[in-house]
Amino acid sequence: MPVDMGLWRRLKDEAYRRVLEDIEIGYMDSDIVDVILFFFKRKYSFTTSSCSGRITVVDAVMPWKRKDSTVIFKKHSTVSIDDVVKYLSEVPVSRLWLIVTGPIIHVNSAKLSEAREVIKIARDSGFKHSGIMSMGKKGIISELRTGIRIAQLLKDKERLYITRDDLEGILRIFNEALLEGKKRLKRLEENLRRSVS
User: Fold this and answer.
1) CA of 116: how far to CAs of 28, 56, 120, 172, 193, in Å?
2) How far apart are CA 10 and CA 108, in angstroms?
């Protein structure tokens, strides 16, 4: 099914207005703003959703299950022991997981050649787990991912699985992983800048 260019352009215009509003009210992660704006400068692409990478504490049966899970802490920058240690004394509904994830960006392209170029730029920037997710009259949706993800079980209803000392070491590694994602995001920004100039 070919992309309906009239519909696609309307979607891009609407998305751009929302992005500008999100920037104005401070809702968008500041370290991803330039990346998003570079996608909008491309003639045949725009972003539909994004995250610059984050560290979360999630109450869930498993770290990948979204149903019946609750995010109880979220930060898009490095975290300290004080940010997380307070959750060790809480009794979870299921299990408490500490999770770090790298950046993720969803891009809507109007042409298959554009989607391929976007994916190549992303992969060259360290977003190795990137590809086309769907194609339809609204556009070609690609997901750009680094593959950066670590999950650590903190506790369940019966027991605590780590000590405060353990948590300090774990947070060092999680912060390192988060910063690696930010480096790749910066590389993506530089590669996008070159591609639109």
Assistant:
1) 26, 32, 6, 36, 17
2) 12
In the chain, what are the domains? 5-196 (3.30.1960.10)
Beta-carbon contacts of 2 under 8 Å, excluding residues fewer than 6 positions away, are 137
Model confidence, pTM: 0.92
* End-to-end CA separation in angstroms for the chain: 31
CA dist., res. 136 & res. 152, Å (int) = 38
Dist CA 43 CA 73 (whole Å): 37
Chain centroid offset of residue 52 CA: 5
Q: Within 13 Å, how many C-alpha atoms sit on residue 193's CB side?
A: 9
Question: φ, ψ for residue 171 (rounded to 5)?
Answer: -65, -35
Taking only the tens place, the pLDDT of each residue in 103-132 is 999 999 999 999 999 999 999 999 999 999
Q: Dmax of the chain from CA atoms?
A: 57
Asked if 104 contacts 149 with a C-beta cutoff of 8 angstroms, the reply is: no
Residue 10, number of CB atoms within 10 A of its CB: 12
State how far the alpha carbon of 178 is from the alpha carbons of 33, 76, 147, 188, in Å. Answer: 17, 8, 11, 15
What tens digit of pLDDT does each residue of 51-75 get? 999 999 999 999 999 888 999 999 9
